Request: fold
Amino acid sequence: MFKKFDEKESVSGTQQLKSSVQKGIRHKLIESFPSLGDYLEKILPKKDAFRIVKCHEHVELLVRSDGELLFFRQRDGPWMPTLKLLHKYPFMLPWMQVDKGAIRFILSGANIMCPGLTSPGAKMSKVDQNTVVAVMAEGKQHALCVGLTSLSAEDIAKTNKGIEKGMKEVTSPPGNHDEDTVYFGRMWS
Reply:
């Protein structure tokens, strides 16, 4: 999604949102991330005029007035938190854990297949299909990326063979940045 992100070329416009639209987005975020309820005022204050940055390929970024990127989505899909936000509030998403062998492939942009989520070092939360999840790695403290499940955890455990994708939309970051900067979906080192 963000493999070749260049702000000058990839951004097609910025839109200041009306208060009614902001209220609707806040409501969707509370609905999508119920554990974030008490912290949403800190993340997106009611008095803050946040905006949407529209990018190519129907990607929308939710940006606070101070310029901090918070959430993103593609088309009318679910809002997904940036990795930076997920690292601040790690409890906001259910998680899936992959084993150590999958780390370099995920960071290189590979999809996560069912066997990668059911191997000995992997663990799964009980989630439904099309759920936004934090992808963790065995032995690591922070999330590697944010993903959207293509199957429920139960179906992933049943399938456990072949190339059936356990997750779609494993997100990746825009452009080059240093190791202290964490953007959209994947943290690169």
